[in-house]
């Protein structure tokens, strides 16, 4: 850990970071190349199944496929062959289709990048709207009250696939404004971009919104206001102060959509990289999977480098010269409505759990399927006639518990790794764009189906947002004058860490973690098809949402209940943390 | 803020650059609107091998009438003439087929030599197409329009076999040196595949030289939409004229006029593992069979789009019901108390897979039924390829399984032999029963069609007697056809969809 204040003149060596990137990318590609050998699932079988669903897996056929693919040569020969072809732009041929890999991955990547740019535009817009009030008031020095960020929490906890389903049905089918699926022109880009961008935008906006008051509280802002600079100028400078802390979140939140938007790609039938890599992973079509992974790694690293450059450009010389004033939140009054919101959410959840626990979540009654809410079933029933209130109540503790543990482990890992920014930059960038499904497949390959598999898979990739955030905030904090003063006064590393660095990093980190809580619930459930996590019929909020998704239009209450519960949980977590902070300050 | 605006400009400049990548390889949007009577079809399973007839994609060629075989199947599942106008059997292993006058879409004539070439390529394909897996076929051109086919051992179902889309006859141009097969412009059907864009789209134009007359529709625009909800949405949003396989959860949302259900040859059943674990005990198997009630699934999980199971073969196999043999001599079912003692605290591992949306729901209903009968049940639900190895290794006690009962050959023996004989390669039930083996062998050897069907039904009874499989429901496929489309073929075997007569009103 390089916690001490770096001398301003010495430029840090670029080697550790570059080495970290190469090592992390190499390790990931190596793991992917070994996937069939790790999992013990015969690629001949999965490839045969992908080519022809009803083919009998006779030993002779399997041997034929094995011979065709040269599987007996082992993983290393394959990897070497694939790597050897790359300089010529040849990534081999797909094991399933026999077609060259490069054009497939290239097309899918360009589709996904386009979609990502659309999502980015929406993200920026939503983030702007979320913090518009703070910017407006702050620039006019009228910021008195703290904000809970309830809106951001609500929007950030909307499941993307549900949003996508609703948008496709309402805007695509009912109103016919946009095509409900396909990828045929800019008009088919809008709905998926909205579905992907709204939750991401709310998440980033929520983070920015919390960081802004500190910037408006700085002396320069007061001076600028006093000399009568226009509010727009002040707002711009405040954004310039706070954006660098939030920018690294773009990588795991927006850039990661290139490979991680599988559910939305499916709903809108978009031939993107997420689906391609998932299909190839399931069929163990290694050349395609390796090339897709390589594309994601390169994308992650280059986006990381760009974001880093952008941050440094925004912060400018102050960062290099160690003259950055630290951002410290002013003490704002906590609005009284916050208490009501928190209490309300807590009561709703408590009521849900108590009422639900008194009922049977597993009782199947096929005669009572898809019943709307009534006195017997206050939240209605699902497609098998199970009481939704019971399922929500029984699932609450497990869902919230696992999600909290996973988030805590991820945040802690991220915090620790983020403290060694140069070494962890590579792994962070590589892992950021890695879809959780791929991590799940690797985990499932090693451990086989297991209850804890889903949690470990999400932990394995979930730390990257926190590492990126920690690294960025620490860098800014270290460049601030008071650290230099402390060092000059003889502060040791531990003292610096405890008294200066952690206090500036932990609150934003906590907020980030809480805003990501609902996403964690959904990602955990999305690994179920690999046999990771609790098996059905165990009620779990993520599973409730995904198993009822097909009935969203026929029986909206089957998804509204779980989605609302998720929103309430997220609002409770976020407002609770604001209240906690209010008391602490 | 110079830097950010520069970044913004870069992003804005990049957008149109990347926006060029919509619908890969599909430049002209004009044809995609269904103009001029062109049919728009949304298919479910994206091509895996560029529509090679030796893969999953083969059925696309027959569904869209791109390529034909020597024979075709009629409604009752018997062979009818296609590219061969007649055939006769000369001995146990020799058949002669008379070809009709026809042209390939690339302009070349259909000749005996072309047929020999096509069949030779199918026989040499690696892995071998499923339809040829248990037969070796030699084709010889007698003269310009006569082909003699010889099989190594007697094959009573050869004409049925030849109807398989995997044995479609393509022109010589289709077969590449590296074993790849391209049906683009090389079939004989009324529609010519003119372009295939990756896994998302294909364009078909009418082939005016078709031997059976000109097709009524000028062309077909195919899009592949893997997600069932998205397919239903595309149909409801008016973006497609025909959408196949609407999931049961979406079927209710369609208009009555657009919803067409057709009995499918798919039977869903509960397979009990007789080879190892809990269900080696015949009494427990009987208890499970008695506990399980497939008809409870029909109106719930399948939303009415299924028929309660009659046996292994459902209403889509028209001759099955009339020839069904009652099952006798089954083991008596253990009572719930006996089940509790006999299982000795062991858990019933109930597996199913997520690939078909209805199966996990069905498993949950069955779990409750089995628990009522005294079993302790634990589910394992995964993606199919994630569990196939474990299934064949017998790691589960029971599996909720959806199976096509008439495979490529259109002959039921194939399914019975692979799934239920001692040496069957797909014997998930681990069944080793001499009586079953004998009954299936007898059916396989029978040449007379009616006699074969009777023996198949006798084999069915022999299998059901062992309680290795408990049929649950016979699925129905829901096809979505927009109001203005006429002449769509609702085929239980899912081999045909559009032919010369299909058109927009």
From TrEMBL, chain A:
Q: Which SUPFAM superfamilies match?
A: MetI-like
What parts of the sequence cross the membrane? Answer: 21-39, 108-132, 153-177, 189-208, 246-268, 288-310, 338-358, 396-418, 430-463, 554-574
Gene Ontology terms: biological process? transmembrane transport
Query: Subcellular location, in the record's words?
Result: Cell membrane
Q: Which Gene3D superfamilies match?
A: MetI-like
- Please report the record's description of how this protein sits within the membrane: Multi-pass membrane protein
Pfam families, per the entry: BPD_transp_1
The lineage's top-level taxon is Bacteria
Q: Which UniProt keywords apply?
A: Cell membrane, Membrane, Transmembrane, Transmembrane helix, Transport
Q: Name one GO cellular component term.
A: plasma membrane
All residue ranges annotated as the ABC transmembrane type-1 domain in the record = 392-578
Which family, according to the similarity comment?
Answer: Belongs to the binding-protein-dependent transport system permease family.
Q: What is this protein called?
A: ABC-type dipeptide/oligopeptide/nickel transport system permease subunit
Annotated source species:
Streptomyces paradoxus
From TrEMBL, chain B:
* Record-linked Pfam families: SBP_bac_5
Solute-binding protein family domain residues: 79-424
Instruction: Give UniProt keywords alphabetically.
Output: Signal
The region annotated as signal peptide is: 1-19
What Gene Ontology biological process does one annotation of this record name?
peptide transport
Record-linked CDD domains: PBP2_NikA_DppA_OppA_like_3
Q: A single GO molecular function, which one?
A: peptide transmembrane transporter activity
**GO cellular component terms?**
ATP-binding cassette (ABC) transporter complex; periplasmic space
Q: Which domain of life is it from?
A: Bacteria
Q: State the protein's name.
A: Peptide/nickel transport system substrate-binding protein
What is the species listed in this Swiss-Prot or TrEMBL entry?
Streptomyces paradoxus
Source taxonomy: Bacteria, Bacillati, Actinomycetota, Actinomycetes, Kitasatosporales
């Amino acid at each position: 850990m390089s916690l001490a204040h770096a001398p301003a003149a010495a430029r840090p060596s670029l080697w550790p970071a570059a080495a970290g990137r190469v090592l992390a990318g190499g390790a990931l590609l190596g793991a992917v190349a070994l996937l069939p050998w790790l999992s013990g699932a015969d690629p001949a079988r999965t490839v045969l199944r992908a080519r022809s669903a009803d083919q009998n897996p006779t030993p002779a056929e399997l041997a034929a496929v094995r011979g065709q693919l040269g599987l007996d040569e082992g993983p290393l020969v394959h990897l070497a062959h694939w790597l050897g072809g790359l300089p010529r732009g040849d990534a081999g041929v797909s094991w399933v289709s026999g077609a060259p890999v490069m054009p497939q991955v290239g097309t899918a990547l360009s589709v996904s990048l386009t979609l990502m740019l659309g999502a980015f535009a929406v993200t920026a817009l939503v983030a702007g709207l979320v913090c518009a009030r703070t910017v407006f008031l702050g620039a006019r020095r009228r910021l008195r009250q703290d904000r809970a960020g309830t809106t951001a929490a609500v929007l950030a906890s909307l499941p993307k696939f549900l949003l996508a389903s609703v948008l496709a049905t309402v805007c695509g089918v009912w109103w016919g404004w946009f095509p409900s699926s396909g990828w045929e022109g800019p008009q088919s880009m809008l709905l998926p971009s909205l579905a992907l961008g709204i939750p991401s935008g709310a998440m980033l906006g929520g983070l920015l919104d919390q960081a802004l008051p500190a910037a408006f509280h700085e002396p320069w802002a007061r001076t600028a206001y006093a000399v009568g600079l226009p509010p727009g100028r002040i707002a711009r400078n405040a954004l310039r102060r706070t954006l660098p802390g939030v920018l690294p979140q773009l990588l795991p939140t927006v850039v990661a959509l290139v490979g991680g938007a599988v559910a939305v790609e499916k709903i809108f039938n978009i031939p993107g990289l997420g689906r391609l890599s998932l299909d190839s992973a399931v069929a163990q079509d290694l050349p395609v999977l390796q090339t897709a992974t390589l594309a994601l790694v390169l994308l992650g690293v280059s986006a990381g480098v760009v974001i880093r450059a952008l941050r440094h450009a925004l912060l400018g010389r102050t960062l290099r010269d160690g003259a950055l004033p630290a951002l410290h939140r002013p003490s704002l009054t906590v609005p009284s409505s916050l208490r009501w919101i928190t209490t309300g959410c807590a009561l709703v959840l408590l009521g849900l759990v108590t009422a639900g626990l008194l009922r049977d979540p597993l009782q199947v009654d096929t005669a009572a399927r898809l019943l709307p809410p009534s006195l017997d079933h206050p939240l209605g029933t699902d497609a098998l006639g199970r009481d939704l209130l019971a399922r929500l109540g029984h699932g609450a503790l497990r869902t919230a518990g696992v999600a909290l543990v996973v988030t805590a482990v991820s945040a802690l890992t991220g915090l620790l790794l983020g403290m060694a920014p140069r070494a962890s930059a590579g792994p962070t960038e590589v892992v950021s764009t890695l879809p959780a499904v791929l991590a799940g497949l690797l985990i499932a390959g090693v451990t086989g189906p297991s209850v804890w598999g889903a949690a470990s898979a999400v932990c394995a990739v979930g730390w990257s947002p926190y590492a990126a955030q920690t690294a960025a905030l620490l860098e800014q904090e270290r460049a601030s004058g008071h650290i230099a003063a402390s060092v000059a006064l003889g502060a040791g590393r531990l003292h610096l860490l405890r008294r200066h660095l952690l206090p500036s990093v932990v609150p934003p980190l906590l907020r980030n973690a809480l805003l990501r809580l609902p996403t964690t619930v959904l990602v955990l459930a999305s690994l179920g098809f690999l046999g990771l996590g609790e098996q059905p019929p165990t009620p779990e909020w993520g599973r409730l949402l995904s198993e009822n998704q097909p009935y969203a239009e026929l029986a909206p209450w089957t998804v509204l209940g779980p989605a609302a519960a998720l929103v309430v949980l997220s609002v409770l977590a976020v407002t609770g943390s604001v209240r906690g902070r209010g008391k602490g300050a | 803020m110079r830097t950010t605006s520069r970044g913004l400009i870069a992003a804005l400049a990049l957008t149109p650059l990347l926006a060029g990548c919509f619908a890969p390889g599909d430049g002209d949007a004009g044809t995609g609107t269904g103009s001029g009577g062109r049919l728009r079809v949304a298919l479910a399973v994206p091509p895996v091998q560029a529509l090679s007839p030796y893969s999953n994609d083969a059925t696309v060629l027959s569904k869209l009438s791109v390529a034909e075989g020597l024979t075709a199947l009629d409604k009752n599942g018997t062979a009818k003439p296609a590219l061969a106008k007649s055939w006769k059997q000369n001995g146990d292993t020799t058949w002669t087929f008379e070809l009709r006058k026809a042209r390939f879409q690339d302009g070349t004539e259909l000749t005996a030599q072309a047929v020999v070439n096509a069949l030779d390529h199918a026989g040499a394909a690696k892995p071998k197409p499923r339809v040829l897996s248990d037969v070796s076929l030699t084709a010889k051109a007698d003269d310009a329009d006569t082909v003699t086919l010889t099989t190594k051992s007697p094959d009573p179902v050869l004409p049925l076999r030849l109807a398989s889309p995997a044995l479609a006859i393509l022109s010589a141009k289709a077969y590449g040196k590296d074993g790849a097969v391209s049906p683009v412009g090389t079939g004989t059907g009324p529609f010519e595949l003119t372009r295939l864009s990756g896994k998302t789209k294909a364009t078909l134009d009418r082939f005016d030289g078709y031997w059976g007359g000109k097709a009524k529709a000028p062309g077909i625009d195919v899009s592949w939409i893997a997600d069932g909800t998205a397919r239903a949405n595309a149909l409801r949003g008016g973006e497609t004229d025909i959408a196949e396989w609407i999931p049961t959860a979406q079927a209710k949302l369609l208009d009555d006029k657009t919803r067409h259900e057709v009995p499918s040859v798919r039977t869903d059943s509960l397979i009990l593992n007789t080879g190892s674990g809990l269900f080696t005990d015949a009494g427990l198997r009987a208890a499970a069979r008695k506990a399980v009630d497939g008809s409870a699934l029909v109106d719930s999980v399948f939303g009415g789009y299924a028929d309660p199971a009659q046996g292994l073969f459902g209403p889509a196999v028209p001759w099955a019901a009339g020839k069904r043999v009652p099952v006798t001599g089954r083991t008596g079912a253990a009572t719930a108390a006996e089940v509790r003692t006999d299982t000795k605290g062991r858990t019933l591992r109930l597996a199913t897979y997520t690939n078909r949306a209805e199966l996990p729901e069905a498993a949950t209903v069955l779990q409750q039924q089995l628990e009522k009968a005294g079993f302790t049940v634990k589910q394992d639900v995964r993606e199919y390829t994630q569990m196939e190895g474990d299934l064949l290794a017998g790691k589960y006690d029971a599996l909720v399984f959806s199976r096509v009962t008439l495979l490529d050959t259109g002959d039921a023996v194939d399914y019975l032999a692979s799934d239920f004989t001692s040496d069957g390669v797909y014997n998930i039930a681990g069944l080793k029963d001499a009586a079953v083996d004998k009954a299936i062998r007898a059916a396989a050897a029978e040449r007379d069609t009616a006699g074969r069907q009777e023996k198949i039904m006798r084999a069915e009874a022999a299998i059901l007697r062992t309680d290795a499989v408990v049929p649950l429901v016979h699925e129905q496929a829901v096809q979505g056809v927009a109001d203005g489309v006429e002449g769509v073929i609702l085929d239980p075997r899912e081999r045909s969809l559009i032919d010369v007569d299909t058109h927009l009103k």
